[in-house]
Amino acid sequence: xxxxxxxxxxxxxxxxxxxxxxxxxxxxxxxxxxxxxxxxxxxxxxxxxxxxxxxxxxxxxxxxxxxxxxxxxxxxxxxxxxxxxxxxxxxxxxxxxxxxxxxxxxxxxxxxxxxxxxxxxxxxxxxxxxxxxxxxxxxxxxxxxxxxxxxxxxxxxxxxxxxxxxxxxxxxxx
Length: 174
Known about the structure:
Blueprint: H1 3-6, E1 12-13, H2 21-34, H3 41-54, E2 58-60, E3 63-64, E4 67-69, E5 77-87, E6 97-105, H4 111-125, H5 127-135, H6 139-152, E7 157-162, E8 165-171
Parallel strand pairs: 1-5, 3-6, 4-6
Antiparallel strand pairs: 2-3, 5-6, 7-8
């Protein structure tokens, strides 16, 4: 699976309108709903917030990866958003978040869901891709960064879990 299989230009917000975490979650959920990826926006938002209540998906270094699997979701998809001013996502490093990858998946989709999380994590470990995402001037430029990533890392990622969470991923597989 390629990142661009689940992330399309219509799923990119080049500059968030909002700066508060809950408003950003709603803004991004609107994109899922407008694109037809989810059936019920409020249920999806509730699941994202429930996940955030357990532990922030602000993973540090300016990144958040909010995600939910629920029956309100029609298909596995990613919406990407960027904030030049930063969002207080209650990240583990207590710093603002500038890049947000929101992931949706239906309940029955687990393996592919983990692959998408692992692919996003691999992309974000590369400081060059992060820098390019922060500096891109258009949605098309942002999308081209994702295409370039997929060209360089087209293979499946091997995922190791601990208590249902991805703890390690590396290139491998097919």
